[in-house]
Design brief:
Blueprint: H1 12-28, E1 36-39, E2 46-48, H2 52-57, H3 75-85, E3 91-93, H4 95-101, E4 108-113, H5 116-126, E5 132-136, H6 139-146, E6 154-158, H7 167-181, E7 186-192, H8 196-208, E8 214-220, E9 234-240, H9 246-257, E10 266-273
Parallel strand pairs: 1-4, 1-6, 4-5, 6-7
Antiparallel strand pairs: 2-3, 7-9, 8-9, 8-10
């Protein structure tokens, strides 16, 4: 699967993923002690929704477009909408910019991107944020070097473009290495859900690598008869060491995300290991 993000920025998967990231960051902010955010596949940072790539797919209209002006009750969703609206209707912030907006003076962000053009855009997008640093490199190779963070608190976002045939195996392998170095860290792993078997296989690998608290989040927007073959209609998040109350927060946020969608859309929050 090729998931170049310029074509998909602001789609339903971004809404779900970025709301979950914000819920985690808001939890980390409850304590004064510093935390680190590591984004292994950061992308360009900011996306122009009026550009040809975004207009060609129209996915933002069926994603963030459905929620513009929504008075969210969920704290995480409300914060997400406020941050996104702050960039204006023609732009959509990627995960590094969203995280950077929620950093306090004692916190920091490391955003990794290997594509030269995307890295240049990322570095420019993060330049107003003194506690955010862009690194040019392979996120899978860089992550072990950055762990454990000096802060001993934080979240690792693993959100690759799924351009490689063995991406799931790479994720499982690097998670195992990372988890051994930073066992108490929160890990947020995104994946497109093309079939149930691939989702279950990755979850099994994550458990086998030592995850004792593992939460699965799924958002399925359903398929319309006119949708082209291969169009993504469901995505998932695997969350290792989710904060207390995160599952309830995401159930509430997921229900709101579905409010403006038709029948056939669904969301699911399920403990795969551990639990409250």
């Amino acid at each position: 699967m090729n998931y170049r993000h310029a074509y998909h920025a602001g789609n339903f998967a971004d809404v779900h993923k970025h709301t979950a990231l914000i819920a985690i960051l808001l939890h980390l902010r409850r304590k004064e002690s510093p935390f680190a955010v590591i984004d292994t596949h950061a992308g360009g940072g900011l996306y122009d929704l009026s550009a040809d790539e975004a207009q060609r797919t129209g996915e933002a209209h069926a994603g963030i477009g459905l929620l513009r002006g929504h008075a969210a009750q969920s704290q995480a969703l409300a914060e997400y909408l406020e941050i996104v609206d702050g960039f204006g209707p023609q732009h959509y912030p990627g995960s590094p910019l969203i995280a950077a907006r929620l950093l306090r003076p004692q916190d920091r962000l490391v955003a990794i991107e290997k594509q030269p053009e995307e890295y240049d855009a990322l570095r420019s997008a993060l330049s107003p944020f003194p506690k955010a640093r862009a690194i040019s490199g392979n996120g899978y190779l860089q992550l072990p070097i950055l762990l454990p963070p000096a802060e001993r608190r934080g979240v690792v976002l693993i959100d690759p473009p799924y351009e490689q045939e063995y991406e799931l195996q790479q994720i499982a392998k690097i998670f195992g290495v990372a988890h051994r170095r930073f066992t108490t860290g929160i890990y947020l792993i995104w994946q497109p859900l093309k079939n149930a078997s691939s989702a279950g296989a990755l979850a099994d690998e994550i458990r086998n690598a030592g995850a004792t608290k593992l939460l699965s989040l799924v958002l399925d927007v359903g398929r319309a008869p006119e949708d082209p073959v291969g169009k993504l209609s469901a995505s998932g998040l695997l969350v290792v060491n989710p904060p207390y109350g995160f599952d309830a927060e995401m159930r509430a946020a997921g229900a709101e995300i579905l409010l403006r969608r038709g029948t056939g859309a669904s969301t699911r929050v399920e403990w795969l290991a551990g639990g409250p």
